[in-house]
Amino acid sequence: MKNTIETFRKQKLNGDKITMLTAYDYSTAKLIDQSGIDSILVGDSLGMTMLGYDSTLSVTMEDMIHHTKAVSRGVENALIVADMPFMSYQTSIYDAVVNAGRLIKEGNAHAVKLEGGATVCEQIKAIVDCQIPVMAHIGLTPQSINAFGGFKVQGKSQETAQRLIDDALKVQEAGAFAVVLEGIPSKLAKIITEKLDIATIGIGAGADCDGQVLVYQDMLAMFSDFKPKFVKYFANIGEVMTSAFMEYSKEVKNGTFPSAEHCYKIDDDIIERLH
Ligand code: KIV
Q1: Is the CB of 83 under 6 A from ligand 1?
Q2: Residue 183 burial by CB count (10 A; 0-12/13-18/19+): exposed, middle or buried?
Q3: How far is the CA of 184 from the centre of ligand 1 (A)?
Q4: Any bridge partners for residue 80, and if so which?
Q5: Nearest partner of 114 among 75, 85, 155, judged by Cα
Q6: How does residue 224 score in pLDDT terms, banded at 50, 70 and 90?
Q7: So what's the pLDDT on residue 223?
Q8: Is 215 in the pocket of ligand 1 (CB under 6 A)?
Q9: Alpha helices in 57-135 (DSSP H)
């Protein structure tokens, strides 16, 4: 069954947890979709996991469209949400609408996600007015690392916690259908989740959110540059890949791969007539 923003609404209402994982390519998106995951985020985290940057700041609209297109070809049921990259919506409402439209028209996403609270509400409203669903994202928003002075848990003081509650209410009022809560204390995420009618999707925000999202390379132990506290390894695919690559190298070097079963045949009398 195809998931829509209406599915998210019903899941929040019924208390059914929402599952979301990132994907950036056709093959992975297909596996995630076939596993019954509710939603796929083509995150600008691809800047780190796919392109090797040390932050998301250099990711472009072209990068996002390229990877969103690939994901969309592998998905039948999951709701595809594409991230709006740094400076594709902060600059003006016009830029926000045009770039959100590109992720839908060219990337085939079903919804877009952008970071920020009160400061981006005009953008959220304008995009939603164009009939494009928006997922908001507050807390430890990675596009703000220079302003935050690094990847730091947000909302630990009374003032910043209150600001996050107010931001969550404002993005809901602006028309967002869901909000990602990243890197905030679990008790604060619980309060926000209880106050909102729209779904909260947590990452480093505890178990009381309406759903969870993880970067797939993180949960499969494929990305070893750093491991945030909130990441759980559900399988050690990084280790499985490394040992397969080493075995392949060994077999090529010692001549056991390819063997007869991996080779194409030709009639011997044809070979004999060759000169
Ligand atoms: O880019 C991304 O993968 C994200 C998630 C971490 C929420 O924004």
Answers
A1: yes
A2: buried
A3: 14
A4: 40
A5: 85
A6: confident
A7: 85
A8: yes
A9: 61-74, 93-105, 121-129
86-137 per-position pLDDT tens digit: 999 999 999 999 999 999 999 999 999 999 999 999 999 999 999 999 999 9
Which atom number of ligand 1 is nearest to the Cα of residue 115?
8
Active site residue 122: no
Grouping H, G, I as helix, E, B as strand and the rest as coil, residue 89 is: coil
In angstroms, the CA 76 to CA 108 distance is 12
CA 63 centroid distance within chain: 14
> What is the C-alpha separation between 126 and 97, in angstroms, rounded?
7
Measured in Å, residue 124 CA sits from the centre of ligand 1 at 18
Q: What is the DSSP letter of 21?
A: E
Predicted confidence at residue 258, as pLDDT, reads 97
Q: Compute the distance between CA of residue 33 and CA of residue 29 in angstroms, rounded to an integer.
A: 6
| Per-residue confidence (pLDDT) for residue 196, from 0 to 100 | 98
- CA separation for the pair 84, 96 (Å, rounded): 8
Instruction: Name the helix (H) or strand (E) containing 148.
Output: helix 145-148
Instruction: Determine the atom of ligand 1 nearest the C-alpha atom of 41.
Output: 3
- CA-to-CA distance for 265 and 20, rounded, in angstroms? 46
Residue 22 near ligand 1, beta carbon < 6 Å: yes
Residue with CA at minimum distance from ligand 1 atom 8: 43
Q: Which of 6, 62, 76, 182 is catalytic?
A: 182
Q: Please give the torsion angle defined by the CA atoms of residues 195, 198, 203 and 207, in that order, rounded to the nearest 10 degrees.
A: 60
